[in-house]
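Open question from group meeting: does this chain pack into something compact, or does most of it stay loose? Before anyone orders reagents, we agreed to write out a predicted structure and look at it together. Recording both the input and the output here so the notebook holds the full record.
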Amino acid sequence: MSPPNSSALNRRPAVVLVSGGLDSATVLAIAVREGYDCAALSFDYGQRHHHELAAARKISASLGVTRHVVVSLDLRQFGGSALTSDLHVPKDRNEQTMSAEIPVTYVPARNTVFLSVALGWAEVLNCFDIFIGVNAIDYSGYPDCRPEFIEQFERLANVATRAGVEGHGTFHIHTPLAQLKKAEIIAKGLELGVDYALTHSCYDPNNAGQPCGRCDSCRLRRAGFAALGQVDPLKYPEAT
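Structure tokens returned:
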């Protein structure tokens, strides 16, 4: 997919959080298609693997984004999550179980931290649009993926910054995937030309980066492709 032909100087800037996963790749493609001059932001936060950061770089490049910053934040010092400690990653859960409680893969306050950093960069860039791939339907019960959280953070952004207080603009947190099912997200990405073979969604991949096929993220992803009658381009262990 190629970015719009208009010069970046004539396009409205946006900061887009890019994790390397399916959802954030789709959000980045949406922002590019809508004509934003996108600055991609990823985090090396002490997660249990770095395959997603490699994916984030590939996705950003494939969508024509030349400005990509990776911020280091060692949340492993706090732990409290299977993604930032040695806690077991849940496997083979059905969608009802996934949504019944907040799982151990929830990283405490992660989206609050990430959006705060994105807000700081946006203010430096004189940018008032921030995109994030949160989803309130096909997700694992994370509280910081809900519309209520996004609404409150957006309000915070406009009273906690010099740009907001002095009236230079109004910050808006874009969540174009918030009310879409996983299959709808994938369909949107395919329409926009996203190469999902570049993405990484697994919470617990092997050392080579191969997805487990059994964690919540893998199961939701695979179900989304199956619902569309599509084959997920990632390679999973044959037994899953």
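Observations to bring back to the group:
Strands lie at 13-17, 37-44, 67-72, 129-131, 172-174.
The helical segments are 22-33, 51-62, 95-100, 110-124, 147-157, 162-165, 182-191, 216-227.
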